[in-house]
Every structure is written in structure tokens, then in C-alpha cells.
Amino acid sequence: MASTNNIAALQLESVSKRFDQTLAVDDLSFTVGEGETFGFLGGNGAGKTTSLRMVLDIIRPTSGSISVLGRPPGRENAPVIGFLPEERGLYRQMTAIDTIVYFGRLKGMKAGDARREGLALLDRFGLAGNAKSSIDKLSKGMAQKVQLAAAVVNRPRLLLLDEPFSGLDPVNQTLLEDEIRRAATEGATVVFSTHVMQHAERLCDRLLFLAKGRKRFEGTLDEARGSLPARLTLLSRQSPAALPGVISATRLNGGQDGWEEWEVRMAPGANAGDLLERCIADGFPLRRCEEQRPGLHDVFIHLVGPAEARS
Ligand SMILES: Nc1ncnc2c1ncn2[C@@H]1O[C@H](COP(=O)(O)OP(=O)(O)OP(=O)(O)O)[C@@H](O)[C@H]1O
Ligand SMILES: [Mg+2]
Predict the structure, then answer these.
(1) What is the distance in A from the centroid of ligand 1 to the CA of 38?
(2) Is 210 within the bounds of a domain?
(3) Domain finish residue from 225, 248, 266
(4) How far, in Å, from the CA of 55 to the mean position of ligand 1?
């Protein structure tokens, strides 16, 4: 038997989901290793929620197979999974702590353990004074934090968060980022969907771009960035247009003593290191070379296309 370390936390193989005329998920395959923080990125209607619902066995794939910690999706996985659904929904008359205990019990926890963990979570989330408030007395963001506490109360091995940042103010977005890092540090695998690239940029080990149900990219942040041609800013005394790997050079500013600032676009695959090496070897007059790292937003638009990035 394979050891636990060799089992992927999550694996989808050629998964498709059709709703009448809509192919919501189209032949999707990807793997999330244990302990990874994985970003599931795509615009509205890309198929993120549909995919997560299939992982949780809320809906069944039309075709393909899914493995969750080495097992098929199903209720028996509940004790090791945490899930924050996109549609937040809690019993409005129940208190915050009872809500968390209720979810803990559904995942097979003893009531006492769930209460102890729930109170600790409320304290960490700045809601210690609201443990006995009913959900309908809490603000939207506060209720969302209670739902997050319910998702993590069992210290899940696999934490699935569908648009967890939406509806949270900047302070609580940071709190949620910290909570995701904390879960990851404790060994959990975290998969979260978002269309806000900055969160993914700060948190993900690996990510997947989805558009119209199809995978457009899967890999690390650096691999994603590497798909865009590098852009450099150089301070030189000579035009860098003829240097190897340079496809265009635009003069930005004239400086002192003939030093000028240039923006340089590199050919796909060319990199700043090779260019620097060549400058040194050839005695090219260079004073500064800065690589402009592309943001994930630009990478997403580049890989998915501006029109499809929205769908
Ligand atoms: N129950 C359903 N019945 C019919 N069509 C559905 C159903 N659920 C989702 N769809 C369709 O499947 C596609 C993917 O929807 P999904 O909710 O998975 O997207 P998403 O990536 O989560 O988008 P968002 O960022 O807006 O939450 C959409 O075209 C949607 O209309
Ligand atoms: Mg969704």
C-alpha cells in the first residue's frame, strides 16, 4: 500500500460536468499534493464552484474521476475536510458557538472538543464577545468568520474555500490570509478559489487558471510569470536594442553624462541573467538592470485572453 505521503490530497482526471446546454467543466485534470496551498483562479462562470462541489460530492461529474485523499468523494470524507461554500448560509437563530459546534458534530467531533476549539477560533477571529450572539445579530463579515471557524473547527487535512475573501474588509482579508498560512503550516492542504489575483500571489504554492471550464495553466507562480516575456529597465550609455534576446528597447529618460534609462522587452524564454552576462563579457556600458516582475493579473490576461478572462 502506498504511504500517506504519496497520496495526492486532491486529484481530478478528465472531469467534465454538463448542465443541459452548458459544459460548466470541460475535461479538467489537475493534482494538488498534500500540504500545498493551491489557488483555483478564473473569472465569473469559469467553473470553479462546480468543480469544488464535485469534490465534495454535492454534485456528480458527467464523466471523469475524482480522488480526495486517495478516496472517492463522499460523506465519509467529512471528518478530514473543511469547506467554506460560496453561498454563505447559517441558521440565523443559532448562536455563533452553537453553529460551530453543530458543524463540528457533523464532521464527527465530540461536542466538548468542538466547543473548546470553536471558542479558541472565535477568540482568534476577534469574536470572543460574540460567542453567544445569534447569527442574525452579526454583521455579514462577522457571520462569514463564524462560517470560516465552522469550516476549520475539525482541523481539516483538506480545506476547500470558495471565494473566501469576498465580503471581508481589508483587516479581515489579512486575518483570513493568516489563517490559511496557519492551516498550511500545520500541514493542511488548502484549495481556494478567487478572482482576486493578489491573494493568490501572496499565498499559493501552485495555481490553476480556469476559463470556460477548461484548464489554461497549472503550475507555480514563477512558472506562471515565466509565461510572459520578461521586461527590464536598464540604465545604459548605449541603446540595448541589439543585445541578445531583446525584441524592443524604448528610451524612457535621458540622465546625466549620457546615461539613459531604457525599457526593454525580452523575447519569450530570454532572461535577464543571460543579457547581463553578455553585457559584462562585451563591456557594454550598463549601470543598472531591473527586472519588472509581471503581476499575476497580467499573466492571467496573457494566458487566458482579455475576453475569456471574464468568463
Ligand atoms: N446548477 C446549475 N444549473 C445550470 N447551470 C449551472 C449550474 N451551476 C453552474 N452552472 C453554470 O456552469 C457554469 C460555471 O458556473 P460556476 O458557478 O462553476 O462558475 P464559477 O467559476 O464558480 O463563477 P463565479 O466566479 O461567478 O462564482 C456557468 O455557466 C453556470 O451558469
Ligand atoms: Mg463560484
Answers:
(1) 20
(2) yes
(3) 225
(4) 15
